[in-house]
Write a structure and sequence with these properties.
Rossmann fold, alpha/beta, nine-stranded mixed beta sheet, Dihydrodipicolinate Reductase, domain 2, globular, six-stranded parallel beta sheet, 15 helices, 4 domains
Length: 458
Amino acid sequence: MSLRQFIASRKFLRHVESLTNIATLGWKEVAGLLGLHDDVFYNPQHKKIEKPVTAILIGAGHRGTIYADYASENPDELQIVAVADNNAERRKRTARKHKIIPEHCYKDWKDVFIKEKFADAVIIATPDQLHTAPCLAALDAGYDILLEKPIAPSEEECRLILKRAKETGRIVGVCHVLRYSPYFRELKEVIDAGLIGEIISVQHMEPIEHVHMSHSYVRGKWRNSKMAAPIILAKSSHDTDIIRWLVNSPVHDVHCFGNLRWFKNANAPEGSTERCTDGCKVEDSCAYSALQIYYRDRKRTYVFDLPEDEDEQGSFILEQLKTSDYGRCVYRMDNDQPDHLTVNMLFENGTTAAFSMEAHVSYEGRKTRIMGSKGDIIGDMESFVLTDFKTRKQTSWSLKTDAHGGGDHRLVKDWVQAVYQQNKDLLSSSIEVSVESHLMAFGAERSRQNRTIEDIKL
């Protein structure tokens, strides 16, 4: 019996009560004492893959590369056999890494579908506004799909993809990577086991971190909701999905407040210039100096597609800061994304949730409080503490992981198994539930703009 099976059984509580030092133990220690399987990701439905799943990578940027790297680490399970990207350097890098023949390297994703189907599946990691067309083309061509979130930048497009997925019967896995982080997976297990009773309410916070906000949503390609998608969708569809998943009930109503408070022209310091490279008089004291972030500290430079020769990288970055949006002053952009917002949610089972997205913080890592009828949980993406109301005993769990909680390749593993077995139930989320979590975000944005309470219906 696995830990996940045992923890859901009534016997677990009797064992827990017999452990006098339970307050000092984590779940792995509990599993060890009980002689159980301690891997929360253990899935007895997974099978040995006799022939690797073949996939086409459409969009070889940062996220697409991460998903495709699963093939490099697990070539017996997944093989990348083609790439489509309008950037020659990314195509070249991907082709070299995955040994892709020149005939299967495409500048335009449309060229992939001129040919008859030549792989099992497609990984779509293009910019948000370019998800819908390749996804529909892939479905029509008979491919299964791994689709980077958000599904699409508009409600109409999300519903269209859902409709086409149902019509074709193909597998569409949406990249809800946080579901595959050990932190949220453990939370889900203990909640479903009833260890805090019924969920009464949830408080969840996503601290974006001030530099991350400036990079992605002020200077970056998600800075304008009309060019990309509302930030509640582009950044926080992870969170609407996680809240929906933990509560395990359809949402009924959403209500949102938020605005762009700081990153606008009115707050530009005296002496600042259009670009950080234009002799800005406050550059050395600005928390958002592009020279400091990208050139001196060399952070988030993946957006520049740096040359492989390290001696050339410095001059290359400086040139990018003089010509690209990443070198512009954060107070002089065409951004419109809110830098803070709050969303209230009412679910059909009566649970309420309050979500807060905050840019003006010095840290990252989501914060979660879950209030139940028998106990509560306080967590921060690396650890959580469960307290039982009756006994006052506490159980803790902790594990340091990467920015997405270590979930990227676990998600790909489940998706590969789903494609190999042709069983969409092996995915953590169905396309229907994935779309519902997006509708929560769209409803929140309408509420923010119109000062309304939005009824959510799939």
